[in-house]
What does this fold into?
Amino acid sequence: MNSTIILITGANSGVGYATTKVLVSASKDFHIIMTSRSLTKVKTAMAELEASKPAGSLSALELDVTDQQSVDTAVAHVTSQYGHLDVLINNAAIGSRGPDVMKRFQDCLTTNVIGPAVVAAAFRPLLLKSSNPYSLFVSSGAASMGKASDPTDAVYKVNIPNGGAYRVSKAALNMLVLQEWIKYAETGLKVFAVCPGFVRSNLRGKSEEEVSGWGQAGDPVVAGEMILGIVKGERNADVGKFVWKDGVYAW
Ligand SMILES: NC(=O)c1ccc[n+]([C@@H]2O[C@H](COP(=O)([O-])OP(=O)(O)OC[C@H]3O[C@@H](n4cnc5c(N)ncnc54)[C@H](OP(=O)(O)O)[C@@H]3O)[C@@H](O)[C@H]2O)c1
It folds into this structure.
């Protein structure tokens, strides 16, 4: 029986997939529950990772962060199978696309803010049964108010196509993280906002140009390695903060 139970949302793609790959390769003690809004997609992703016979173990679960029923069903499954959860990684998100401002904001806020809020609340009782619980929220450095208001910072004028709704949603997520930390710190829940860096994924679209961020995006495995470090306790000095691989960002 694996001793550390980890659940990650949006595990079939990009940062979620790469993080799962790093975690499951790192220790036989890790069991990673890969979740996705599509059971077919996450089972395919799991089969790919299992082909390399990793040290740890995997399971696949459907979880749509915008669907309360789906979240509740996932919680019931984890409760009956494991009785607790050690690490929750709220990773799933969408970018903002399309010309309709109302729809962009509604979609981004629903998936990137309300989704993690619902998931965090639903899994919190299971996390609080762990002797060493971590709650991670994957955010974005482009949402840091400190960076975004600094004319010398690269994100001050960053050109994310239709990026307003996405950046606003991640800034709101950061406030959610801060509140989660302040409210539950005394329980031992270690809460982090995490910037994965600018990495290859489907967030910007599925063409090679978009996946590669027009040739600028790095390897999401680097984000997975940072998350592994957090799970191993190597970043405990930064608990309650907005971390990136080499330091801490201003909220
Ligand atoms: N890539 C970057 O450069 C970058 C930079 C900063 C922050 N981030 C953050 O990194 C995280 C992961 O994104 P990514 O870059 O890896 O993009 P990605 O490849 O598009 O992965 C996003 C994942 O979220 C899933 N998802 C979307 N809506 C969902 C829902 N309603 N319920 C459950 N899952 C849902 C997607 O599922 P489908 O496959 O079904 O769409 C996919 O598995 C996000 O929080 C993102 O904001 C990424």
